[in-house]
Specification:
Elements (H helix, E strand, L loop, with lengths): L4 H5 L1 H13 L8 H14 L3 E6 L3 E7 L8 E7 L26 H18 L5 E7 L7 H7 L2 H4 L4 E8 L7 E3 L2 E4 L1 E10 L3 E2 L9 H12 L1 H6 L6 E10 L6 E2 L2 E10 L2 H21 L3 E10 L2 E3 L1 H15 L3 E2 L9 H7 L2 E7 L18 H15 L4
Parallel strand pairs: 3-4, 3-5, 5-16, 6-15
Antiparallel strand pairs: 1-2, 2-4, 6-16, 7-14, 8-12, 8-13, 9-11, 10-12
């Protein structure tokens, strides 16, 4: 079963929605305009229920099938937020908001789920209930967790949940997925190194925090090379090195390090966390100083369920003729919180060649949308077949 004709016919309308969202990006939980548009569209389509304010600015829509003998309830999730970065494209519909850009394609995800919602509201050719989840603050805000914490899964009786993301480099209209651990956990750390500052000409009278912190940066790389098994995935990145002084002739009293740790399992996550603390504090102590570590747990590992992944791949194959096996990615995805509460699966849809996500020249490919919309619709119709 290829792309649905009705969704192909809707492409100009869905594209217009996306271009409007792209021109007016909103960051984290500040998706007030976007959420309002989504709620208005779902109401216009004739959804049986539209609820706002879930997870602060999230929107939930409910569509009931022609029948409900199965009692099944499936959740479909799209993210709505943009990134705090400046767009560098020549698109006629480029961002009109300074310092904000849809550089990850969430405008496309929202538009594709709206397209599927319009189709499903018109046809209702399924036996059960579909819950449409439009989520804010995927880009670091944990909007998925906040929607779950608001009781979304129990309130609407969601039994399984599905998500989708465009993927540059994968041909337009093709799909890729994998079971098990798919996206990494994404934790953050702050390390404040304290020594004894002083004059650069009298370094022997100081406890040089710049040297201590430099040694810590190097030593942290042994977490991947000497602490964690080589068969496990871990990435430790120190992304900021900030001294208390900017003078040429002052050895600073403190240095502030920031960074992330990304892993693919709960066990490796905990091992890496404890190792970071031990290495930072031990290295500082060896130089006569101290290190205060603040470790912030971020998104957990996103794990696709076996059964739902197999089904999602089957649906993708029915649309595109095939479904590739995806590589793991060390990026984070807060759909992980939803998959911790319910079985489900997350899939890539091809965005074609071009700049990668989170790049100022990234462009979502509108030709991706018929396949994406069709996948959403087929998830519902094949999982809860009418009759």
């Amino acid at each position: 079963m290829p792309v649905k004709n009705r969704l192909a016919d809707l492409l100009p309308e869905i594209t217009a929605w996306r271009h409007d969202l792209h021109e007016n990006p909103e960051i984290l939980f500040e998706t007030h305009r976007t959420s309002g548009i989504v709620a208005d569209k779902l109401t216009e389509f004739g959804c049986d229920e539209v609820t706002t304010g879930i997870g602060r600015t999230g929107v939930v829509g409910v569509i009931k099938g022609k029948t409900n003998t199965s009692g099944k309830v499936i959740g479909l999730r799209a993210d709505m937020d943009a990134l705090p970065m400046q767009e560098q494209t020549d698109l006629p519909y480029k961002s009109k908001v300074d310092g904000a850009m849809h550089a990850c394609g969430h405008d496309g995800h929202t538009s594709m789920l709206l397209g599927a919602a319009k189709y499903l509201s018109e046809t209702r050719n399924f036996d059960g209930t579909v819950v449409l989840i439009f989520q804010p603050a995927e880009e670091g805000g944990g909007g998925g967790k906040e929607m779950c914490d608001d009781g979304m899964m129990d309130r609407w009786g969601i039994q399984e949940v599905y998500g989708m993301h465009n993927w540059p480099g994968l041909p337009v209209g093709e799909f890729a997925i994998r079971p098990g651990a798919f996206f990494a956990s994404t934790d953050q750390f702050d390390i404040v190194v304290e020594g004894r500052g002083g004059h650069a000409a009298k370094a022997h009278l100081t406890l040089d925090t710049t040297v201590m912190a430099s040694q810590i940066v190097i030593a942290l790389q042994t977490i991947a090379s000497r602490v964690v098994s080589p068969t496990e995935h871990v990435v430790v990145s120190v992304t900021s090195f900030e001294t208390a002084s900017k003078a040429y002739n002052v050895i600073p009293q403190t240095v502030h390090l920031r960074g992330t740790i990304r892993t693919m399992s709960k066990e490796t996550r905990e091992l890496a966390r404890q190792s970071l603390i031990d290495i930072a504090q031990g290295t500082a102590a060896a130089h006569g100083g101290t290190a205060e570590v603040d470790f912030k747990l971020g998104y957990p590992v996103m794990v696709n369920s076996e059964e739902q992944t197999e089904f999602a791949a089957k649906v993708a194959t029915s649309i595109a003729g095939k479904c590739a096996f995806a590589d793991q990615t060390m990026g984070g995805e807060d759909f992980a919180f939803m998959l911790e509460e319910r079985p489900g699966a997350y899939i890539f849809v091809g965005n074609g060649e071009g700049a990668d996500v989170h790049h100022p020249e990234y462009v979502f490919n509108d030709e991706t949308m018929p396949a994406g919309c069709s996948w959403w619709a087929e998830i519902v119709e094949q999982r809860m077949p009418a009759g």
